[in-house]
Specification:
Length: 390
C-alpha cells in the first residue's frame, strides 16, 4: 500500500505527455505551448501615440503652434512631416509623424483659432510608444510550457501568430459501475440510489477545461470487461468509479488484471479513498476510484488532476497548496493520511461536518481539503496543516 505522497509521485512519473497539435490561436485557450514562440514582428510595429493629443517636433519652440493636420488610428503617416512651430492632432494608437519629438496630452492644450497653445510642455519622447517597446522581432514571446490564458491568446494575436503548437488534451472516459445505480429522471425503486459520480467528475473536469464522456456498466465481469475494452481503444484515460474493492461484485480489478493493465499502485494509505487503483496500458492511463461520492471527488483533486496536468504539459498544478492553522483539535491513528473537507479563510481552516466518504454535501461549501499526514496522531487548535485549495 502506497503513502499519499508516494502514490502522487508515481502518478507524475508514469504519466506521459500527449502529442503536439497545431491549433488556431483563438481555439488554444487552456492548452499548453509545446514549443517556444518567437515574435514574427516588432510590437508596436511603428511608433504610436500613447494617448489623444498633439504631436510636435520641438519642445524649445514657441508655446503656440499652428494646427496643420490630423492623424487617426489606422492612418498611414509615413509621408507626414512636422515642421518647427507646427502641431498635428493625433489619437491613441495612431502612427507618429516624422520628426515628432513628443505628444502633448489634449488636456494640456488650449485650442485657439487654427492654433494650439501648450499649457504644460512635456519632455522629449513623452507619450510615444517606441517600435518594439513590448517585443522585438525574433524575441521570445511565449515560452514552451506556458499555459495559454486569455492574456496569452490576446498577446499571440497582437503579434500576428495565427496558429500555435500545443500539447493535445486527453480523450477521457468515465465508467460508472453498480447494479444499485439509477439514472436521473427515472423512478427510484427500493434498494436503488441515483448515480451521481459521473456528473461529479464531468463537472470537475469541465471546470478545469476538459471534456469527457460517461458510460455505465453493471456489476458483472463480462459487462465490465466489454465496456473497458470498448472505451480504452478510444480514450487516453479511463476513470472507473466503484467496483475496485474486493467485494463479491467488485470486478474492475479482476478485469484490469486479465487484460494486462500494468498496476502502478493499488491502495493508498488515505481516508477516504483507500481502494484506489492507478495503472497503464499502451501509454494510456487507468484510474479505479472508490465508489463512495466524497472519495471520488477527493481522489479526483488529489490524483486525477495531477495526471491530467502531466498529460497536457502543464508544469503548474491546477490547484494550489498552502499551510494554515486549524481552529479545532484533531486526532487519528498514525497509519493513514486523513483528508478532510474544510473551509479556509485568511490564515485558518475550519472543519466541515459530514466527513464520511459517502457524504458529498460538505463539498458544496468546502474550498479546500485539509491533509492530516500519516505518522502523526494529534493536532491541537492553532497547529499548521497543509491544505489543497479547490
Amino acid at each position: 500500500m502506497e503513502s499519499l505522497n508516494g502514490a502522487l509521485n508515481k502518478v507524475k512519473s508514469h504519466t506521459k505527455k500527449l502529442k503536439a497539435i497545431l491549433l488556431p490561436t483563438e481555439l488554444a485557450l487552456g492548452f499548453v505551448a509545446n514549443k517556444d514562440v518567437l515574435s514574427p514582428i516588432s510590437f508596436p510595429p511603428f511608433e504610436q501615440s500613447a494617448m489623444d493629443g498633439y504631436a510636435i517636433n520641438s519642445i524649445d519652440s514657441e508655446a503656440v503652434f499652428n494646427l496643420v493636420d490630423e492623424i487617426k488610428a489606422g492612418d498611414n503617416a509615413n509621408s507626414v512631416q512636422l515642421k518647427p512651430g507646427d502641431a498635428i492632432r493625433i489619437f491613441t494608437g495612431a502612427m507618429i509623424p516624422l520628426n515628432a519629438t513628443c505628444v502633448v496630452r489634449q488636456e494640456d492644450v488650449e485650442k485657439l483659432d487654427g492654433k494650439v497653445k501648450i499649457l504644460v510642455m512635456p519632455k522629449v519622447g513623452a507619450n510615444i510608444r517606441r517600435i518594439g517597446e513590448q517585443v522585438k522581432v525574433g524575441d521570445l514571446a511565449i515560452q514552451k510550457g506556458t499555459i495559454l490564458n486569455p492574456g496569452a491568446i490576446g498577446y499571440l494575436s497582437m503579434i500576428g501568430v495565427s496558429e500555435v503548437s500545443v500539447y493535445s488534451k486527453p480523450r477521457i472516459t468515465i465508467i460508472t459501475t453498480g447494479n444499485e445505480l439509477t439514472k436521473l429522471g427515472e423512478k427510484l425503486e427500493p434498494g436503488m440510489i441515483y448515480e451521481s459520480n459521473s456528473n461529479t467528475l464531468l463537472a470537475g473536469l469541465k471546470s478545469f477545461g476538459f471534456d469527457a464522456r460517461a458510460v455505465s456498466a453493471r456489476d458483472t465481469y463480462e459487462e465490465v470487461k466489454e465496456t473497458f475494452q470498448n472505451e480504452i481503444g478510444v480514450s487516453d484515460i479511463v476513470i472507473f468509479t466503484g467496483g475496485i474493492s474486493v467485494g463479491d461484485y467488485d470486478f474492475v480489478g479482476k478485469v484490469l488484471e486479465d487484460l494486462k493493465v500494468n498496476t502502478i499502485f493499488y491502495k493508498v494509505k488515505q481516508k477516504p479513498g483507500k481502494p484506489l487503483f492507478f495503472g497503464e496500458i499502451n501509454d494510456k492511463m487507468v484510474f479505479g476510484l472508490p465508489g463512495n461520492p466524497a472519495a471520488v471527488l477527493t481522489s479526483f483533486y488529489l490524483f486525477v488532476l495531477p495526471c491530467l496536468a502531466e498529460m497536457i504539459g502543464r508544469e503548474k498544478s491546477f490547484v494550489s497548496r498552502a499551510k494554515v492553522a486549524i481552529d479545532f483539535d484533531y486526532s487519528k491513528s498514525a497509519e493513514m493520511t486523513h483528508l478532510l473537507k474544510g473551509l479556509a479563510c485568511v490564515d485558518k481552516v475550519e472543519l466541515l461536518p459530514a466527513q464520511s466518504s459517502a457524504m458529498l454535501s460538505s463539498f458544496v461549501t468546502a474550498n479546500c481539503i485539509a491533509i492530516f499526514d500519516e505518522g502523526r496522531t494529534e493536532w491541537k487548535k492553532g497547529d499548521l496543516v497543509e491544505i489543497l485549495m479547490i
